[in-house]
Amino acid sequence: MDRIVLIGGGTGIVQVILGLRSYRQVGVTTVVTIADSGRRSGELRTQLGVLPPGDLLNSLYAMANEEEMLQILSHQLPPGTLGSNHGFTLGHLYLAIASREVGMQRAVDLLSEPLKVNSKDRVLA
Questions:
Q1: In whole angstroms, what separates CA 48 from the centre of its chain?
Q2: Rounded Cα distance, 109 and 74, in Å
Q3: What is the pTM of this model?
Q4: Which pLDDT value is given to residue 1?
Q5: Per-residue pLDDT tens for 5-36?
Q6: HSE (CB half, 13 Å, CA atoms) of 98?
Q7: How far apart are CA 43 and CA 49, in angstroms?
Q8: Which of 76, 109, 78 has the alpha carbon at shortest distance from 91?
Q9: How confident is the model at residue 117, as a pLDDT?
Q10: CA nearest neighbour of 36 among 46, 28, 26
Q11: SS3 letters for the chain?
């Protein structure tokens, strides 16, 4: 099996993952640099002391094969919910909470299951 390893973060890596979806015989491992200081991720990092989950989450979403779960996890709570100025998504909250309990990599691996990420694909924190 052919394998492609991507290293990066942000919206660029998501676009590459989406572009590679048509090559299903190729396994994609994405090594996500965790330097996101954006709105929701930066706020979670500051408030909870966790690694910013945004770029990891977006990479998982790009690999997802389960649309209903993707829609549920990407649902954004209204600004002001849980004291946030921006409104977190359920996916952000899941990764933040799970990473505190089991570590970020295990949280990402666990979230891959309900999103039905192909077994040959992986997101690494």
A1: 17
A2: 17
A3: 0.86
A4: 58
A5: 999 888 889 999 999 988 778 899 999 987 76
A6: 17
A7: 9
A8: 76
A9: 96
A10: 46
A11: CCEEEEEECHHHHHHHHHHHCCCCCCEEEEEECCCCCCHHHHHHHHHHCCCCCHHHHHHHHHHCCCHHHHHHHCCECCCCHHHCCCCCEHHHHHHHHHHHHHCHHHHHHHHHCCCCCCCCCEEEC
Place of tokens 């990402």: 108
Only one residue has tokens 């990473």, namely 99
- Altogether, the residues listed in the chain come to a count of 125
Asked whether the beta carbons of 26 and 122 are under 8 A apart, the reply is no
Token readout for 26 is 């190729």
Residue environment code for 86-97, b if the CB has 16+ CB neighbours within 10 A, otherwise e? bbbbebbbbbbe
Tracing tokens 């996916």 back to the chain, one arrives at: 91
Give the contacts of 121 (CB within 8 A, at least 6 positions apart). 27, 28, 29, 30, 63
